[in-house]
Amino acid sequence: CNRCNAAWSGDDTALTIQPIGSTKMACADQAATDQETLYLSRLQATTAYMIEGNTLTLTGPDGALVFHTKP
Q1: Which of 58, 69, 64, 70 minimizes the C-alpha distance to 14?
Q2: What is the DSSP string of 26-57?
Q3: At 41, is the pLDDT very low, low, confident or very high (cuts 50, 70, 90)?
Q4: pTM as predicted
C-alpha cells in the first residue's frame, strides 16, 4: 500500500536494516494492512541474508522473507 525506504549495511552474510520510512496511505482492507505490517516488521528485524541462484532470503528472529526473480 505504501512506499518505503531504508538505509542498510552488511557484509558477506550479516545485514542490518536502518529504521524504515514509509508513506502513510491507507491499504484497501485490513488483510492488506496486516500483511504490510508483518512485511515491514520482518524487514526491519533482518539480521542475515543469503543469495542462492535467483533467490534472496532475508532472515531474522521472527522468520524470513524470500524473494525470487525470474531466471
Answers
A1: 58
A2: PPSSHHHHHHHHHHHHHHHT--EEEEETTEEE
A3: very high
A4: 0.85
Instruction: Report how far residue 23's alpha carbon sits from residue 62's, in angstroms, rounded to the nearest whole number.
Output: 24
Span 45-68, pLDDT tens digits: 999 999 999 999 999 999 999 999
Residue with cell 541474508: 49
Side chain identity at residue 7, one-letter code: A
Neighbouring C-beta atoms of residue 46, cutoff 10 Å: 22
- pLDDT tens, position by position, 22-38: 999 989 999 999 999 99
Task: Specify the 3-state DSSP secondary structure of 59.
Answer: strand
User: What residue has cell string 516488521?
Assistant: 41
Residue matched to cell numbers 491507507: 26
d(CA 35, CA 27): 10
